[in-house]
C-alpha cells in the first residue's frame, strides 16, 4: 500500500478551519487507501517559545482534535513526534546534507523570521523544514497531505531524498505532495488576500474549530465579500465570496457550480446565513467529541503510546539503514 505521512503543530487552543480543510480532512480520507502515519509535531512547536505546561496540554488537545475529526487508531498510526527519537536523529543527518543557501530560500522562514525579528528567530525555526524532511523520509512516505503553504518544503524533501539516494545508494522513497487544489489554501474571512492562519489572521477572520458555535456563526456572517452582488466563483475578482463557496462546497459535498446555480438571484446574506448553519452543525459535534477524548486522558495516552511504538518500528529501521549507508560504525 502507498504510505501517507503528515504532522500538525500542537496549536494553543484549537485547530482552525484552514488546518481542517487543507490538511486534516485529507488525513482522514487517506486512512482508507494508505498506510497512514500522523503526528503531533511538538519538536516543531518549540521553534518558537512555549510554556512547558501549555505545550503538554496542547499536545493532548491536538491529539484529541485529530481523533474527533475522524482519525481512527485502528486504521492509522497517531503519535507524538518527540516520542520517536529517530526524528531528531535523522534531522541531524538531513541538516548535514542541506546547503545553507538552499535552506535560506524557504519562504516560510523568511516570512516568519521577518515577523519575529532576526534576533528573536531561532536556528530551530531556520532548520524546521529540514526536520520536516526527516519526518517524511523516516516513514518512506509516498504521499504527504498538506496545505499549499507546505509545497516548497515537500520539494526540499524530494531534493534531499534524491541527493541522499544518489550519493549513498537507494535508501529513501521520494514523496509527492498531496494537496487538494480547491482547499489547499483557505483564506482569512476578513482579509481574503491572506491565508487563514493562527499567527497572521485577524481574530474575526480566523475560524477556530473549538470556538463557541455562536462565535463561529457570527464570524461567518460578518465575512468580507465585495460591492458586487452576484454569488460566483471567481477567486481573482471575488476572493471573499469564492472562499465562502469553497468552504460551503467542501463541507456539504456540493460542487461549486451547483451552489452558484442555487444562489442565482440571491444576496450574499443568504449564502452567509446558510454557511453559518453548516459550520455550526459541523463544529458542534466536533467540540463534543474532542471533549470526550480530553475527559479520558488515559485512553488518549494509550492511543499515543501504541502509535509511538508502531511508528518507532518503522523509523528505527530507516534510521539504521541510513546510518549504515553513511558509514557510521555500528554500536556493539
Ligand atoms: N489556510 C490554510 N489553508 C489550507 N491549509 C492550511 N494549513 C494551515 N493553514 C492553512 C495546513 O494545516 C496543516 C497544519 O499546519 P501546521 O501545524 O504547520 O500549522 P501552521 O502551518 O503553523 O498553521 P498556521 O495557522 O498556518 O500557522 P502559522 O500562523 O504559524 O503559519 C499544514 O498541512 C498546513 O499546510
UniProtKB/TrEMBL annotation:
Question: What chemistry does it catalyse, as a reaction equation?
Answer: tRNA(Trp) + L-tryptophan + ATP = L-tryptophyl-tRNA(Trp) + AMP + diphosphate + H(+)
Q: Which Pfam families match?
A: tRNA-synt_1b (PF00579)
Q: Which key words are in the record?
A: Aminoacyl-tRNA synthetase, ATP-binding, Cytoplasm, Ligase, Nucleotide-binding, Protein biosynthesis
Alphabetized GO MF terms: tryptophan-tRNA ligase activity
Residues that hold L-tryptophan according to the record: 135
Which residues of this UniProt protein bind ATP?
A: 9-11, 18-19, 147-149, 186, 195-199
Give residue numbers for sequence motif 'KMSKS' region: 195-199
The record's CDD domains line, in alphabetical order, gives: TrpRS_core
EC number(s) stated in the UniProt entry for this protein: 6.1.1.2
Query: Could you tell me which InterPro entries the record lists for this protein?
Result: aa-tRNA-synth_I_CS, aa-tRNA-synth_Ic, Rossmann-like_a/b/a_fold, Trp-tRNA-ligase, Trp-tRNA-ligase_bac-type, Trp-tRNA_synthetase
List localization entries.
Cytoplasm
Domain of life from the UniProt record:
Bacteria
The record's principal subcellular location, in a coarse class, is cytoplasm
Question: What is the enzyme's class at the highest EC level?
Answer: ligase
Question: Which HAMAP family does the protein's record reference?
Answer: Trp_tRNA_synth_B
What family is this protein classified in? Belongs to the class-I aminoacyl-tRNA synthetase family.
Known function: Catalyzes the attachment of tryptophan to tRNA(Trp).
**What's the subunit arrangement here?**
Homodimer.
**What name has this protein been given in UniProt?**
Tryptophan--tRNA ligase
Amino acid at each position: 500500500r502507498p504510505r501517507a505521512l503528515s504532522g500538525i503543530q500542537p496549536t494553543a487552543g484549537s485547530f482552525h478551519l484552514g488546518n481542517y480543510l487543507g490538511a486534516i480532512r485529507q488525513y482522514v480520507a487517506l486512512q482508507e487507501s494508505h498506510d497512514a502515519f500522523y503526528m503531533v509535531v511538538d519538536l516543531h512547536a518549540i521553534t518558537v517559545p512555549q510554556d512547558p505546561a501549555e505545550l503538554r496540554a496542547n499536545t493532548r488537545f491536538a491529539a484529541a482534535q485529530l481523533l474527533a475529526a475522524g482519525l481512527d487508531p485502528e486504521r492509522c498510526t497517531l503519535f507524538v513526534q518527540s516520542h520517536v527519537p529517530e526524528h531528531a536523529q535523522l534531522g541531524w543527518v538531513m541538516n548535514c546534507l542541506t546547503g545553507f543557501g538552499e535552506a535560506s530560500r524557504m519562504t516560510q522562514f523568511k516570512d516568519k523570521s521577518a515577523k519575529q525579528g532576526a534576533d528573536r528567530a531561532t536556528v530551530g525555526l531556520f532548520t524546521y523544514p529540514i526536520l520536516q524532511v526527516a519526518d517524511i523520509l523516516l516513514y518512506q512516505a509516498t504521499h504527504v497531505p498538506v496545505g499549499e503553504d507546505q509545497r516548497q518544503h515537500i520539494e526540499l524533501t524530494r531534493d534531499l531524498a534524491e541527493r541522499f539516494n544518489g550519493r549513498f545508494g537507494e535508501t529513501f522513497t521520494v514523496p509527492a505532495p498531496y494537496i487538494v487544489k480547491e482547499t489547499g489554501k483557505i483564506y482569512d474571512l476578513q482579509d481574503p488576500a491572506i491565508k487563514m492562519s493562527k499567527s497572521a489572521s485577524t481574530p474575526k477572520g480566523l475560524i477556530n474549530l473549538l470556538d463557541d458555535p455562536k462565535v463561529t456563526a457570527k464570524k461567518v456572517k460578518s465575512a468580507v465579500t465585495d460591492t458586487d452582488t452576484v454569488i460566483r466563483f471567481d477567486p481573482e475578482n471575488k476572493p471573499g465570496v469564492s472562499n465562502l463557496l469553497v468552504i460551503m462546497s467542501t463541507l456539504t459535498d456540493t460542487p461549486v457550480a451547483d451552489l452558484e446555480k442555487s444562489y442565482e438571484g440571491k444576496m450574499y446574506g443568504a449564502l452567509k446565513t446558510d454557511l453559518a448553519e453548516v459550520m455550526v452543525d459541523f463544529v458542534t459535534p466536533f467540540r463534543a467529541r474532542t471533549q470526550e477524548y480530553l475527559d479520558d486522558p488515559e485512553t488518549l495516552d494509550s492511543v499515543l503510546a501504541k502509535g509511538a511504538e508502531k511508528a518507532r518500528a518503522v523509523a528505527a529501521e530507516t534510521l539504521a539503514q541510513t546510518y549504515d549507508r553513511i558509514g557510521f560504525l555500528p554500536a556493539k
